[in-house]
TrEMBL record:
Listed Pfam families: Na_Ca_ex
Subcellular location, principal: membrane
Protein name as it appears in the record: Ca2+/cation antiporter
GO CC aspect terms: plasma membrane
Membrane protein topology class: Multi-pass membrane protein
Gene3D superfamilies membership: NCX, central ion-binding region
Localization per Swiss-Prot or TrEMBL: Membrane
Residues annotated as domain Sodium/calcium exchanger membrane region: 46-198, 244-385
A GO MF label: sodium:proton antiporter activity
Domain of life: Bacteria
PANTHER family, A to Z: SODIUM-POTASSIUM/PROTON ANTIPORTER CHAA, SODIUM-POTASSIUM_PROTON ANTIPORTER CHAA
Keywords: Membrane, Transmembrane, Transmembrane helix
Regions crossing the membrane: 20-36, 42-62, 74-99, 111-133, 145-166, 178-196, 241-262, 274-296, 308-332, 367-386
Length: 387
């Protein structure tokens, strides 16, 4: 009898651990919808953010299962793409507010750059810091960071074009045309990189031999200690098509929460005088939070290669895919959207790329390098508050 009760308690414990994010996400969005209808914008924004973050974590979990079946580099590609889809939906729904309030465009621009800042400094910084504390040093394929930092540097340089033109005496039409051409170039660049990553140079994005040995030793130790538990997680039983369908369903629910977050959040930011920089950071943190959780777990499991793939891969996709898609959606929606980012955004982007290049170029990471990224992020946050 006692054994039966113990088993039931264990099942309940695992059920809560496995599905809390789904229940919290759906219930939070329902509560957010209620507060939205009641005109309580602050509460609606808060619960919508909780709902988006929780369900984004569900998307990340399902995408992680799918990624494990696809292997690297396709695994990290699926993880980053699923997260960026959430980011695009969130930013586009916010962008729609520009129909009545053109200043919202600046918030969307801030969100695009902030997503990269958060990925490369908070996600990478936290994961490398915590992983470094546990393993002293962790090794990854240095070709991965070399390729990604090169891509990001070229991308940052491309985004400088409309920004530089906006400082001259060029008309709004010229800046808009330049932005459109840059977005086309970014999309072409993304397609080339996709072929490079998944076809011709897949070895650039795979774990080094030493890292694989570390993971093998860890798994063998876990097996010998008998710590492995039978996993009844329902999504583990789905095939690839079922996993993709589950991701689609979660993203659809997230879109509902994103609309509430956009409508009430923008009003709230204006009411309390929240700067564009901080608004962009809030949007980025909400969108990127599931990736942060995934990266921290990977770092603690000595899978620093996955951390680098997620952080830098998400940053790359955040610009190369998000910018062209938002440009196209803005054009179809009759919204003027240009890529003339402010000096703080472009400067922070370039400095982030340089910092990432310096901290990952040797193929080894430690907690000091992680702390360096976190310090940079805190400094950026202070500037964003007062900018």
């Amino acid at each position: 009898m006692e054994i039966s009760i113990e088993k039931q308690d264990k099942k309940l414990k695992y059920f809560i651990e496995d599905y809390w994010d789904i229940f919290l996400g759906i219930s939070s969005i329902m509560v957010a919808f209620y507060f939205h209808k009641m005109g309580q914008g602050g509460a609606a924004t808060l619960f919508a953010a909780i709902g988006i973050g929780s369900l984004s974590l569900s998307v990340s979990e399902v995408a992680e299962i799918l990624s494990e079946r696809l292997q690297e580099p396709y695994g990290s590609f699926v993880l980053t793409l699923s997260a960026v889809v959430v980011e695009i939906i969130l930013l586009y729904i916010i962008l729609l507010q520009a129909v009545t309030d053109p200043t919202v465009v600046d918030t969307v621009k801030g969100g695009i750059i902030s997503a990269v800042i958060v990925d490369m400094n908070v996600l990478l910084g936290l994961a490398v810091f915590l992983g470094g504390l546990k393993f002293t040093e962790q090794e990854h394929n240095k070709e991965t960071s070399s390729a990604y930092t090169t891509i990001l540097f070229v991308t940052a340089a491309a985004l400088l074009v409309p920004s530089v033109l906006s400082l001259g005496k060029h008309s709004a039409e010229v800046i808009e045309d330049a932005s459109m051409w840059i977005s086309v170039l970014l999309m072409v660049f993304y397609i080339i990189i996709l072929v490079f990553q998944t076809r011709t140079h897949t070895h650039f994005f795979k774990s080094t031999t030493r890292s694989r040995i570390f993971r093998l030793k860890r798994k063998m130790a876990e097996k010998d200690s008998g710590d492995e538990e039978e996993d009844d997680y329902v999504f583990e039983k789905f095939n690839k098509l079922g996993l993709i369908a589950s991701i689609f369903v979660f993203i659809t629910i997230i879109a509902i929460g994103a609309e509430i977050f956009a409508n009430d959040g923008i009003k709230l930011a204006k009411e309390y005088g929240i700067s564009v920089g901080i608004s962009g950071l809030i949007i980025a943190i909400v969108a990127v939070s599931p990736e942060i959780v995934t990266a921290i777990k990977a770092a603690k499991n000595d899978e620093i290669q996955r951390v680098v793939n997620i952080a830098m891969g998400a940053s790359t996709v955040s610009i190369l895919l998000t910018v062209p898609i938002l440009m196209g959606l803005a054009y179809l929606s009759g919204i003027r959207f240009t890529l003339d980012f402010n000096p703080l955004e472009i400067g922070a982007l370039i400095l982030t790329v340089i910092l990432a290049w310096k901290t990952t170029d040797e193929g080894q990471t430690n907690y000091f390098e992680g702390m360096s990224h976190l310090m940079f992020f805190l400094a950026f946050t202070i500037i964003a508050i007062y900018y």
